[in-house]
Amino acid sequence: MKRILLLTLILLACDDHSDAHDHSDEISIEAEACEHIVEADQALKVNASIDTNNALTVNAEHKRVEITLVNGTGYVSYDSAQDVDYLFFFSQDVDIEFISNDGSVITVTDLSDQTYPCSEMISVFKAKLGVGKYLIKITQTQVSDTPVYLVSEESL
């Protein structure tokens, strides 16, 4: 009986349920992003700016960001904490443009033609970002009043 109790205590001590939310050994980045893009109860809601000066930040770990555009377009900002590749998952067919602090346009790779684990992922882009703040210009290919959902994840 003591051995069972000791084994249970050891297993509980080793079980890490931290808020880091690291699924690297459990599910793919795409599957995790899919989970977050459908979770409406934890969404961060922002209005895109029509100009570059008032763009709101859309960093939201492990939740979707609901972005309301103005006539199908708008700017938001993204703070990159690391010099890594990021994946950006969108719920609508959009074009995006990343602009760095010095005004240069960052190259993005459109991965939208791949198959993803849920139908809510319509547009997917990969961007290599350095540490710093970036503007993201989002343009719907078909103007809609429906907010655009965004989930961002670091690429492995």
What does this structure look like?
The protein is mainly β and 156 residues long. The chain has one domain: Jelly Rolls (Sandwich), CATH 2.60.120.380. The protein is built from 2 helices and 10 strands; from the N terminus they run H-H-E-E-E-E-E-E-E-E-E-E. The strands form 2 sheets. Strands 1-2-10-4-8-7 form a 6-stranded mixed beta sheet, with helices on one face. The chain has a 4-stranded antiparallel beta sheet with strand order 3-9-5-6, with no helix packed on it. It is globular, with a radius of gyration of 18 Å.
List keywords for this structure.
37% strand; 156 residues; 14% helix; 6-stranded mixed β-sheet; single chain; 4-stranded antiparallel β-sheet; mainly beta; 10 strands; Jelly Rolls; 2 helices
Number of helices: 2
CATH fold label:
Jelly Rolls
Structural class: mainly beta
Give the CA-based shape.
globular
Give the second-level CATH assignment, the architecture.
Answer: Sandwich
Strand coverage percent? 35-45%
- What is the CATH domain class? Mainly Beta
Largest sheet: 6 strands, mixed
Radius of gyration over C-alpha positions, nearest whole angstrom: 18 Å
Helix content: 10-25%
Task: Tell me, rounded to a whole number, the average pLDDT.
Answer: 84
What distance lies between the first and last C-alpha atoms, to the nearest angstrom? 44 Å
Order of strands in the sheet with the most strands? 1-2-10-4-8-7
Order of helices and strands: HHEEEEEEEEEE
